[in-house]
Amino acid sequence: MPKNQFIDPDKIRRKGEITFQPVPVNQYSKSLKEERKNFNDEDLVRIYHDMLLIREFESMLNLIKTTGEYQGIAYNHPGPAHLSIGQEAAAVGMAYNLGTDDYIFGSHRSHGEILAKGLSAIHGIDDKSLEDIMKSYFNGSIYDIVAKSYEGSIKGLAKKFLVYGTLAEIFARATGFNKGFGGSMHAFFIPFGVYPNNAIVGGSGDISVGAALYKKVNRKKGIVVANIGDASMACGPVWEGISFATMDQFVELWEGDMKGGLPLIINIMNNHYGMGGQTSGETMGYGYAARIGAGVNRDQMHAERIDGMNPLAVIDAFKRKIKVLEQKRGPVLIDTITYRYSGHSPSDASSYRSKEEMDAWHKHDCIHNYRSDLINNNITDENSLRLIDSEVNELVLETFKMAIDNKISPRMDVDNEPDIIGEVMYSDSSVDAMEEGDPEVLIPLKDNPRVQQIARKERYAFDKNGKPFSKMKQYQLRDGIFEAVIDRFYKDPTLIAFGEENRDWGGAFAVYRGLTEALPYNRLFNSPISEGAIAGVAVGYAMCGGRVIPEIMYCDFLGRSGDEVFNQLPKWQAMSGKILKMPVVLRVSVGSKYGAQHSQDWTSLVAHIPGLKVVFPASPYDAKGLMNAALQGTDPVVFFESQRIYDIGEQFHNEGVPEGYYEIPLGEPDIKREGSDITVLSIGATLYRVVEAADILQERYNISIEIIDARSLVPFNYEPVIASVRKTGRILITGDASERGSFMNDMARNITQMAFDHLDAPAVVVGSRNWITPAYELEDAFFPQPDWIIDAIHTCILPLEGHNAKHDFSDNGNITRAKRGL
Length: 822
Ligand SMILES: Cc1ncc(C[n+]2csc(CCOP(=O)(O)OP(=O)(O)O)c2C)c(N)n1
Ligand SMILES: [Mg+2]
Hints:
7-stranded mixed β-sheet; globular; binds thiamine diphosphate; 22 strands; binds magnesium ion; alpha/beta
C-alpha cells in the first residue's frame, strides 16, 4: 500500500536555499517584580525552599564523600554521588509546571531533579491521594518508617518520605525507593512521575522518546522531559532518539487525533562539562547546544537556550514549551545553562577548570541571588527565610540519620537470602492485554488478505503419502509468527510494532505482509535506521505500561543497539525493585547469503546478558507457540528468527500448526526425533542439518540419533536433555553461532557436570568457525554441515566403522586452531 506522498522531481530539483529561524538565547528579561503578577508569594518562597533542600541534600552527600561525616556523624558511602550543587534553579524550574502525569527521565546527576519533581508533585497532589500513594508503595513499608513519631501535615510527611526514600536508595538500603536495587544513578519514584535515571550517558535520550510515544499512542495525559547533559549530545542514543522523535510521519502520515508531534522535551542540563571535557570549545562543535535543534526538523525543535541560573526564566520557558506540546507541535529542545560547583564526582580535583571561573559562577549563584531578590522585593524577610533554612537542615539531618541506621534502614539480606537479587530479574507474569479497551484496527481479522491466504495453506508440510506440498502451498515459519502477532494486535490495545520496513514493505522478509492493511500508523510504522532507538524507544514504551514488538532487521545490526539491548532492556525490571515491567519482544532476524556483516548468529551474546529471555524457534509450530508465549509475558524476550528457514513448512508436528491460540512455554526444549545412540542438541536453523546428518548416520552406520531442539536458550530446562543423555550416554551440541565463547559451550559444560556419570564420551560442540562469514557461495565452509556433525561424532564420540573424517575435530586440530586464535 503506497504512502501516496508523491516525490516530485520538478519540485525537488528547483533552485533555492534553506533558511533557519533565529534560535533564541537567554531572551527572558523579566524582573521578580514583574513576575509577581504571575506567582503568589508563597510559590515564590517555595521555589527558594526547593532549591535549598536540593543544595543541602547534595552538600550532605558531598561532605560524606569528602570528609566521611555530616554534622559530626560519620558515615562511609562507597557508592557513587554525582552531585548537582549549583544546578538547583535548573532542576526546580524544570519541575515547577509539571504534575504527576508528566514524566521526567534523567542521568547519573539527577538527585536534584528527583527532589524537584517530587516536591512539585507533592505540592500538586491532594492530601488523601498523597497518603494513598505513600501507604500503597511497597505496602506502606517506607511510609511506616517515616510516619513513625511524625507530627505535622501530610505534605510535610510526603516531603520526608521523598527525601528519605531517595537517600535510602542512594545508600542501597532495602527501604529505598527501588529497594536498593537502583542506587544513586538509577533512583526513581514513579508515583511522582520520576522515571528512571540512567548511568549510561545519554541513555535517556531514546528511552524518553518511547515514553512520549506511549503517551501519544495510548492517549495519556502529560508530557515527558528527558534531562540529559550537554556532553550526552554526542551520544548515539540521543541522536537516534531525536531522529525518531522528529520523524515527519507523525505530522504527515498519522491520522485523526494521532496526527501531530510527540509530547517530549529534550532538556539539556548544560553545565558546560562532560567530566573534564569542555563541550563548547573542546569536545563538541555546536557552541550552543540549542543549535542542534535547528538542523533536525522544520520546527527546529522550537529550540531555545535559557538561563538556568534563574528559576523564573526556566519556569517561563517550560510554561511556553508545554503549550507547544499541547498543540501537538513537539518535540522541543531546551538548552538550559547551568553550572556545577561540585566536581563531576567528589573525587574530582577540578583540574580542568580555573578557580577564576568557579568564583565567577559563584557570583551568579542561583540560591544566593534569588534569596536576595525575595528580600529586596519584600516577598519575605530574613527571619522567615532563616526558618526555612533550619527546617531544611533538620529534614536532611533527620533523614540522613534514619537512612544510615541499619535497624531502620537495613540492606537486602543477601547472607540469609543469597538468591534475593535473582527474584527481581523477571516479572514472569501472563497478561492478555496490558490495558483494557478495544484495540484500534482497520478491518475485521477475517477480512485480512494474508489471513485469507494462510487459510488456504497446508499446515503440515507433507501429504498423506509423505510427499511435501509445494513451498507456496505450505504454511511457513513466517506465517506462524504472523498469526501470533496479528492475534495479539486484536487483543492488546497497547501493542505496537515498529522497525525498518515494518509497514508497507511488510517487513524485510515478508513476516508482516498483511499487517499494514490491519493497523493504523500509530500501531505499526517504519522507524528511522536507528537500531539503538528501535530498542531504546521500546524500552521507554514498555516501562510506561505498553506492549511492543521492535524489530532488528539483521542480527548483525544488534551491535548498533548494544547499549539498549545489553544495558537497558534487561535491567530496569530488576533495578526498579520489580515495580516496572518490560513487555518487549525484540524480533531479530539471523541473516544468510549476505556475507560477513549480515549473517552472524549472536544468540550467545544475548544469552550472556542477565535479564533477557532468549528464544530461537526452528519450526512453524514452535514459532507460533513461542511468539504467543513471548507476547503473553511481561519480560523482555529476544526472539531470534533465521532467514534460512522463513519459508520452511511444519515437518515435525504431524497434526499441523493449530489454527487457534496455543503457547509453548519459554525454556522447554523439544525432542524432534527419538533415538537411542547419540543425543544431538541443536539451536535454531541448524536443526535441519542435524536431521540430514541423523538420516545419513542411520542409513550408513546404523546409528540412531535423538534430536533435541533447544527452542530457547534462556530460560532453559536441562531435564529432558539430561534424561536423553542418560539413555544415549553421548551428546553433541550444535548451532550457527561461532563456537568460541558460545552458549553451546555453556550447555556442554552444564551437561557434562549434570550427567557426568552417564557420559561415555565428552560433550562435543560443533559451532560455526571462528572467522568471518564468507559469501553465500562459500557459506558451507562456515556454518555447521551434516558431514561436520558426522566427522565430529566419529573423531570425538564414537568411531564409525570405515568412516574417513574430512574435517579435523581432533584435539591436535583444536589446539593448533586455538593457538592461532581461530
Ligand atoms: C556511555 C557512557 N560513557 C561514559 C560514561 C562516564 N561518564 C559519566 S558522566 C560523564 C560526563 C557526562 O557529561 P554530561 O552528559 O554533560 O553530564 P554531566 O556530568 O555534566 O551532568 C561521563 C563521560 C558513562 N557513564 N556512560
Ligand atoms: Mg555536562
